[in-house]
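Human:
Focus on the backbone:
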Amino acid sequence: MEKVLIVISVLLIVIVLLQSNKASDSSQIITGGNAILFGKTKERGAEKFITNLTYALGFAFIIIAFILSI
């Protein structure tokens, strides 16, 4: 089970690094340009798949880590 956690951890790191640079949009909050950040832009295609995969891997990581701690 520990090996599964390691594989999920590595995959999660890779997937997060593959995501588009959303941090640059987050800096717009400080400068007042939050229209871009909170705009109604929808993810499509590969970007949506990567986001959903990130959520799934994060959830799996938390569940497996919780199971291993028992």
In short: DSSP finds five helices and no strands in the chain.
